[in-house]
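Dear Dr. L.,

I hope this message finds you well. Following up on our conversation about the binding site, I have prepared a predicted three-dimensional model of the protein together with coenzyme A. For your records, I am including the exact sequence and ligand specification that went into the calculation, followed by the structure tokens. Please feel free to forward this to your student if that is useful.
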Amino acid sequence: MIMVMETERLILRPWTEADAEDVYRYAKDPEIGPAAGWKPHESVEESRAVIRDILSAEGTYAVVLKETGLPVGSIGIMRNTDHAKGEDTAEIGYWLGKPYWGRGLIPEAVRECLRRCFAELNCSEVWCCYYAGNEKSRRVQEKCGFRYHHKIENCVNSLGVCHTVYVNRITKAEYEER
Ligand SMILES: CC(C)(COP(=O)(O)OP(=O)(O)OC[C@H]1O[C@@H](n2cnc3c(N)ncnc32)[C@H](O)[C@@H]1OP(=O)(O)O)[C@@H](O)C(=O)NCCC(=O)NCCS
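The resulting structure of the complex is given below.
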């Protein structure tokens, strides 16, 4: 079954290879990928391969602006990650094309994903992480109700870069209180 979610300004729908040019437009920006642990894309062909091999995973969605009908970012509800192991837990990750920063679009998408995690996927908690110094992502998580859980020092990612990772969580009870 193809899952599509809708918010006031966004459609969250599965990625397709036809989105390669839109992915490349934003994912070539060195301010996007490295903040999320991946290298900037170098060609439309690379973006197409990333869609095929990574973004096509179940639970990963193109963040599409209703206004234009075009994808401007990505969000994933990931299962069985380093932080979220087990059937009742998930981790959310995201990025957004730079021209669209600062409009609260990713918080809007995250809130919809949290609704799905707690209301439809039977999660009892959801995790979200950011690298120390990524204030933009820290704010997204704070605004969506995640709380500091622990941090991991000297974490070397697949790009070979060492970060302190802040690991945040929201429980179902905390979500329902909001
Ligand atoms: C993190 C990210 C997804 C935020 O998405 P967004 O939809 O712009 O989120 P918001 O609109 O809520 O803005 C979040 C914060 O970014 C900062 N910000 C907003 N516009 C900005 C801009 N144009 N330039 C720099 N910072 C900006 C503000 O501090 C804002 O917090 P505030 O609500 O206190 O003002 C986006 O910045 C991004 O894709 N960054 C690169 C990839 C990344 O870091 N992914 C997350 C990895 S954990």
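In brief: The beta strands are 5-6, 10-13, 60-65, 71-78, 89-96, 125-131, 147-156, 162-171.

With kind regards,
A. P.
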